[in-house]
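tokens incoming
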């Protein structure tokens, strides 16, 4: 953010490294309900930080105080794996139990009934065209105008997608667990693994 960087840890909570080289630590003594922090998102138009945890859902840090947003109560027992803003200031939340969308105080769930038949969301990425790519433990999906499509990928369909990245040329890079790195650019994926 404009005042430094935020870091989450898997045991010690949340840290804010400020530009003046000081570090603030936030944990249970500050009101953070769970110190297993796996995802962070700074709200686009505020200094508020959303914190995704393993087992306690989402908390929000507002002016140094932790809050549990009421509209996210359904997620408070869950594992939140990823948080990302869309262009309209909505928040997409990846969890072990599906994909959620929060906008205008309403929380929508996307799971098997909506076409996301593998619900353990591992990573999220909005590309330069506004398409939301969803990496799951069983393949790659894309969301366009809240419609979900499975993206069949030769050689990796059904495998865990661990990382997504769009480069400056518009290529989508997909990192998998055990199936290498794949590049999509207006044509089928090109595969990069240890043999090339």
């Amino acid at each position: 953010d404009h005042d430094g960087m935020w870091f989450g840890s898997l045991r010690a909570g949340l840290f804010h490294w400020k530009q003046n080289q000081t570090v603030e630590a936030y944990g249970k003594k500050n009101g953070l309900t769970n110190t297993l922090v796996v995802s962070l998102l700074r709200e686009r138009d505020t200094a508020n930080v959303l914190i995704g945890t393993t087992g306690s859902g989402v908390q929000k840090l507002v002016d140094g105080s932790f809050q549990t947003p009421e509209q996210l109560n359904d997620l408070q027992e869950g594992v939140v794996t990823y948080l990302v803003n869309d262009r309209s200031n909505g928040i997409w939340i990846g969890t072990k139990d599906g994909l959620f969308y929060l906008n205008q105080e309403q929380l929508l769930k996307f799971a098997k009934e909506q076409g996301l038949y593998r619900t353990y969301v591992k990573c999220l990425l909005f590309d330069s065209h506004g398409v939301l790519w969803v990496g799951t433990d069983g393949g790659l999906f894309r969301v366009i105008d809240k419609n979900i499509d499975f993206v069949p990928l030769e050689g990796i369909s059904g495998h865990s997608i661990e990382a997504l990245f769009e480069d400056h040329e518009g290529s989508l890079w997909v990192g998998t667990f055990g199936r290498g790195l794949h590049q999509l650019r207006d044509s089928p994926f090109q595969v990069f693994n240890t043999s090339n």
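note: The chain has a mean pLDDT of 86.
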